[in-house]
Design goal:
Length: 183
């Protein structure tokens, strides 16, 4: 009478089983009901650990994405700040342009004692405002172009940190861990 398959297989077909860590091994059983109860408790503990790990992974992914979005927002805010500064000084430049035109007409049409110094004073202020308008706009444009180039390079970049496990590798490790803990 055969009591089951024979265990006289070559070592290549029957590799030795890995030893179960001390914390993972089940206590000796007195009957089948206790053994089933211990297995259910072990599965429950493994499932709880798995869920906790998945939650921790999700939190890490959310934090990573949040940091990336904050960095992108900060990079986009710098050019906007320069554009706003240029626009602010541009409005003053517009007002000084009208004042410069008015002082020029007054000087040309007869008020020669008062308006030449006022005209040149307004002209100097107008030139300064022109610089304060154009320079921030050019800086903002340069920062915006730099950000666009960095975004393009980042999108086409191959990750240099290949030692970091991929999502599929993490899932495979979790499956392997679950199989080993069910033993």
């Amino acid at each position: 009478m055969s009591s089951g398959p024979s265990r006289d297989l070559p070592s290549a077909l029957d590799p030795p089983s890995a030893s179960v860590p001390e914390g993972r091994s089940l206590p000796p059983h007195r009957n089948k009901l206790e053994r089933v109860g211990d297995h259910v408790a072990a599965i429950s503990a493994d499932l709880q650990e798995y869920v906790e790990l998945r939650i921790a992974l999700a939190k890490a992914e959310v934090n990573e994405k949040k940091e990336e979005l904050i960095t992108q927002a900060q990079k986009k805010a710098k050019p906007i700040g320069f554009y706003v500064a240029g626009g602010f000084f541009g409005l003053y430049l517009l007002g000084f342009t009208f004042a410069l035109i008015a002082a020029g007409f007054a000087w040309i049409f007869g008020a020669s004692e008062i308006f030449p110094p006022a005209f040149f004073g307004i002209l100097v202020a107008w030139g300064l405002l022109l610089l304060l308008t154009v320079v921030p706009i050019l800086i903002g444009r340069r920062l915006q172009t730099k950000n666009e180039i960095e975004a393009t390079l980042k999108a086409t970049e191959v990750p240099a940190d290949s030692s970091r496990p991929t999502r599929a590798q993490i899932q495979d490790q979790e499956r392997t861990h679950a199989r080993q803990s069910a033993v």
